[in-house]
């Protein structure tokens, strides 16, 4: 398979030590991708793909003026009897414009980010776990769990280098104004060298989650750049930016510029060894349509496209994604993000106040600890403390946090996420930023739970 060149404004490969052909698995390089007539001809009398020319046989039911019925009718009017566009160039063009990329060809679309992550491992990392000579991935826990799941499914070993954990610096809060978690670049380098020189293995991918899940902390782009330019590492750095649109505050004059300033997407077209994954599931509120995105150098996008299943993005998904990326929808999208950031500020402020609160008729702490992480995502990570602790006394209690989690879900119908088993997150609950009403409800129910447990 001949690999395309990078973007026209980047004539020389960079960094010089990175050779894509030596990182991609040989069988993937030799792959003859599936092709169909629709790749070349999309109009006319289409009798090439053995579709049902009569169309679907779905009968729509319900009042014609019902909003849900109208939406169903709109969906049924789509060309559902045809296979989807294999390329979706208009959608890619809108994404490229939104993220200030060199070209639409720098965009790959997958069935959710999880398909993208799985494909990247399949492309770059040779399966098999033995004593030596293995390809591996490197992750930085606490982090998104699907990196390890995809690795296990593909019979790939995982090297874990924990995030650096800083203790309180300002006003007793954990990690000060920038949160407590950061990439330990030197530890990552030591792990790569150890695998390579001592164990005879090769780290093919470094996964970085920014903002992190569950940490909610943005990764410093200087750390990403240092790994991209480090000559000892010949693989690919993948930056997972599912939550990138929530960085900054509701008061930012130009939120798009703030996002770009913090996003590794600015490295696309400058580095050949970086991939940035994003999604429509979070800030766009479209988790149900399953559209994941990879922003990458053109050669990597080409390899992803050659390896994926044909027609992976459905007609309804493409239709809704195109609508979501229209100028009118993007205006509402920005407004919604601003509202969520306001709601996040309220939730953070309220939880911070609760950390100074006491149990009823007592001088002992209610048990809400400090927020950890820097709140760059649409969730907050907060500690639950041991019952009987004094106000200001930091004693995280994972057992109590689990009980609070179960009580909230089973007794009062509020579902949050227990994260106390994650490194550096002892006693922590992850609370998604909800509507104003939902945020007030979770705070009220949390206080009630801590009074009982």
From TrEMBL:
Q: Describe the family membership recorded for this protein in Swiss-Prot or TrEMBL.
A: Belongs to the class-II pyridoxal-phosphate-dependent aminotransferase family.
Pathway listed for it?
A: Amino-acid biosynthesis; L-histidine biosynthesis; L-histidine from 5-phospho-alpha-D-ribose 1-diphosphate: step 7/9
What are this entry's molecular-function GO terms? histidinol-phosphate transaminase activity; pyridoxal phosphate binding
Domain (Aminotransferase class I/classII large) spans: 45-446
Q: Which superkingdom?
A: Eukaryota
Residue ranges annotated as transmembrane are: none
Per UniProt, the keywords (alphabetical) are: Aminotransferase, Pyridoxal phosphate, Transferase
Record protein name field: histidinol-phosphate transaminase
E.C. code = 2.6.1.9
Q: Which cofactor does it need?
A: pyridoxal 5'-phosphate
Gene3D superfamilies linked: Aspartate Aminotransferase, domain 1, Type I PLP-dependent aspartate aminotransferase-like (Major domain)
Please write the reaction equations for the catalytic activity of this protein: L-histidinol phosphate + 2-oxoglutarate = 3-(imidazol-4-yl)-2-oxopropyl phosphate + L-glutamate
């Amino acid at each position: 398979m001949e690999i395309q060149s990078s973007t026209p404004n980047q004539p020389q490969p960079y960094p010089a030590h990175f050779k894509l052909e030596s990182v991609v698995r040989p069988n993937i390089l030799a792959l003859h991708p599936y092709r169909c007539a629709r790749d070349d001809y999309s109009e006319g009398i289409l009798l090439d793909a053995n579709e049902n020319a009569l169309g679907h046989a779905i009968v729509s039911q319900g009042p014609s003026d019902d909003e849900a019925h109208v939406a169903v009718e709109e969906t049924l009017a789509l060309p559902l009897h045809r296979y989807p566009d294999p390329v979706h160039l208009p959608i890619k063009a809108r994404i490229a414009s939104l993220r200030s990329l060199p070209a639409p060809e720098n965009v790959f679309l997958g069935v959710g980010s999880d398909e993208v992550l799985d494909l990247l491992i399949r492309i770059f990392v040779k399966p098999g776990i033995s004593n030596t000579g293995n390809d591996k991935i490197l992750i930085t826990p606490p982090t998104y769990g699907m990196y390890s799941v995809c690795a296990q499914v593909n019979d790939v070993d995982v090297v874990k280098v924990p995030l650096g954990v800083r203790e309180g610096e300002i006003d007793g809060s954990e990690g000060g104004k920038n949160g407590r978690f950061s990439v330990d670049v030197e530890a990552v380098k030591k792990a790569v060298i150890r695998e390579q020189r001592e164990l005879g293995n090769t780290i093919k991918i470094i996964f970085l989650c920014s903002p992190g899940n569950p940490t909610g902390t943005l990764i410093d782009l200087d750390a990403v750049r240092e790994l991209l330019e480090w000559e000892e590492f010949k693989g690919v750095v993948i930056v997972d930016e599912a939550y990138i649109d929530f960085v900054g505050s509701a008061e930012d004059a130009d939120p798009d510029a703030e996002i770009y300033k913090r996003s590794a997407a600015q490295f696309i077209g400058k580095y050949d060894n970086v991939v940035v994954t994003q999604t429509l599931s979070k800030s766009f509120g479209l988790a149900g349509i399953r559209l994941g995105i990879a922003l990458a150098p053109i050669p990597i996008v080409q390899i992803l496209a050659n390896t994926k299943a044909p027609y992976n993005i459905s007609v309804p998904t493409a239709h809704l994604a195109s609508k979501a990326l229209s100028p009118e929808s993007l205006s509402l999208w920005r407004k919604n993000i601003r509202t969520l950031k306001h709601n996040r500020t309220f939730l953070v402020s309220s939880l911070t106040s609760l950390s100074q609160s006491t149990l009823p008729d007592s001088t002992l702490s209610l048990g809400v600890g400090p927020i950890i992480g820097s709140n760059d995502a649409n969730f907050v990570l907060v500690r639950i403390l041991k019952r009987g602790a004094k106000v200001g006394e930091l004693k995280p209690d994972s057992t109590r946090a689990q009980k609070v989690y179960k009580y909230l879900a089973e007794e009062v119908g509020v579902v949050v996420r227990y994260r106390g088993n994650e490194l550096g997150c002892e006693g922590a609950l992850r609370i998604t930023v909800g509507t104003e009403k939902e945020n007030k409800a979770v705070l009220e129910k949390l206080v009630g739970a801590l009074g009982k447990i």
